[in-house]
Design a protein that fits this description.
Elements (H helix, E strand, L loop, with lengths): L1 E3 L14 H22 L5 H17 L14 E4 L5 H10 L41 H14 L5 E6 L6 H12 L5 E7 L8 E2 L2 E2 L8 H7 L3 E6 L3 H13 L5 E6 L22 H20 L1
The chain binds thiamine diphosphate.
């Protein structure tokens, strides 16, 4: 397994956004997630905060996309297979210019383009409708195969939850992707170790990680595997560089993450999987992000 660690990867790279800019974007996205869920009075929160840095890195540093032409045939594709984390994707798309930031206030409302799970028929910029876990890697295989058949240069990225890896369809798709040697396909596992529930036991539920060693399992299916800290933009950048340039095999990036990342009282607490912050929770959470922001400005 290739490991990327903070400090090992190149830091700021000519022609690419500064890492500090990516970190600032991540803080802004986390603010928007918290505010939107509070306003909606509904939504998942731990998973979106977990996947934030991965999405920011993809949309601000990696993917070849154009907000003016969301249906541009040559654009890179992104499938958020863990679709319950939609608010993180909406916030990133808004900051990237695909929709007005103010529209985030409609999250999860009737007739909004921003439903609790992504609806590609409602919002330009979404490459796949998701929400029923386990189904996102299969269309990713189809897109990557289609790109090869058309001779199109785009790369397909699919974000999976580690709880989601318990779905059998993921492994059917993993098998086929390796068979077709889809080097233009990357699966990113948001490896936070916490799903919604644990496994039932006589004395209640365990809180064990839903799946052990996802990298080893993808490797056994014939994939190239890279591991990184999923909250360190330099490490994510280095891992995505390796994934995008690898040929002859699809790559799985196992990104070690923390559910609820960025808000101390939500981090690593499964109860924040889908809980709405009260006004007091929101104020405390935003104050923590302000402190992070101030530290970032000083550094
Ligand atoms: C097929 C299916 N079963 C159950 C659910 C309900 N559900 C939504 S999120 C979730 C837990 C997902 O855990 P994980 O993939 O680890 O995501 P994360 O921890 O990053 O939020 C479940 C069971 C669903 N959306 N789809």
């Amino acid at each position: 397994m290739t490991m990327t660690e903070p400090g090992v990867s190149p830091a700021d790279v000519a022609g690419r956004p500064a890492l500090a800019d990516l970190r600032r974007r991540s803080i802004e996205v986390r603010r928007l997630i918290l505010q939107s869920i509070h306003t909606a009075g509904a939504g998942h929160i731990g998973g979106p905060l977990s996947v934030t840095d991965l999405l920011v890195n993809l949309y601000f540093d990696r993917m070849d996309i154009d907000p003016e032409r969301p249906d541009w045939p040559e654009r890179d594709r992104l499938i958020l297979s863990k679709g319950h984390s939609s608010i993180a994707l909406y916030a990133v798309l808004a900051l990237r210019g695909f929709l007005p930031i103010a529209e985030l206030a409609t999250f999860d409302a009737a007739n909004s383009r921003l439903q609790g799970h992504p609806d590609m028929t409602a919002l330009p910029g979404l490459d796949m409708s998701t929400g029923s876990l386990g189904q996102g890697l299969s269309p990713g295989v189809g897109m990557a195969l289609g790109a090869r058949l058309r001779g199109a240069p785009f790369h397909t990225w699919v974000i999976l939850g580690d709880g989601e890896l318990q779905e059998g369809q993921i492994w059917e798709a993993a098998f086929v992707a390796a068979r077709y040697r889809l080097g233009n396909l990357t699966a990113i596992v948001d490896y936070n170790g916490l799903p919604q529930f644990g496994w039932p036991r006589a004395d209640g539920f365990t809180r064990e990680a839903p799946i052990e060693d996802p990298g080893g399992k993808f490797r056994a299916f014939g994939w190239n595997v890279v591991e990184c800290d999923g909250h360190d933009h330099a490490a994510i950048r280095a891992a995505f560089d390796l994934a995008e340039t690898h040929v002859g095999q699809p790559t799985c990036v196992v990104a070690r993450t923390v559910k609820g990342k960025g808000v101390s009282f939500m981090e690593g607490d499964y109860l924040w999987h889908a809980k709405v912050p009260t006004a007091d929770d929101l104020a405390r959470a935003l104050a923590e992000l302000d402190t992070l922001s101030a530290a970032e400005e000083r550094s």
